[in-house]
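Q: Here's a chain of 183 amino acids. Please give me its 3D structure as tokens.
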Amino acid sequence: MARIPLDPPRTIVNRVARWYSRRSYGAELDPAAAMGHHPGILLSSALQEGVLARCHRLDPTLEALAVMSSAVAIGCSWCVDFGHWTSTEEGIDPAKLRAVPRWRDSDVFTDLERRVLEYAEAMSATPPAVTDEMVAGLRRDLDDAGLVELTMMVAVENSRSRFNAALGLTSQGFRDRCEVPAA
């Protein structure tokens, strides 16, 4: 149950956010509704998300796995749900997304993907547990821009996941849209 009402004041910013959410995702996003109580926060978040969506120095699968790893580590069911749906919509292998919570025991990941998952998990720990060895391992395959993008995507997912978890925002059923229905 959300810890804040998901019916923010009817402002132009909130009307535009609701319209955009419905048009882009087929539903109004609970985090946007929660942020709608403070239009400056909602606008700031929307701007950041818009700019980040245009960053493409990192392989999309690596980005999706890093973001999912962070959401799983923090325990944000909303982010896991939405991230699974958006990632599969972008062509990311759903088997890899489902395996993130048990990545150490799964055989679906490459060595680089394992290093990315370890890094994202370490970044999401409190306090962060990133080591020089982790970064050196990533630098064997990622250039400086790719490493910076990876780090920012995990940092942003930490922010999203902690915001959503703190306000009690839970799954909205996005993942159900990409599952094959039972016969």
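Q: Can you summarize the key feature?
A: The mean pLDDT is 95.
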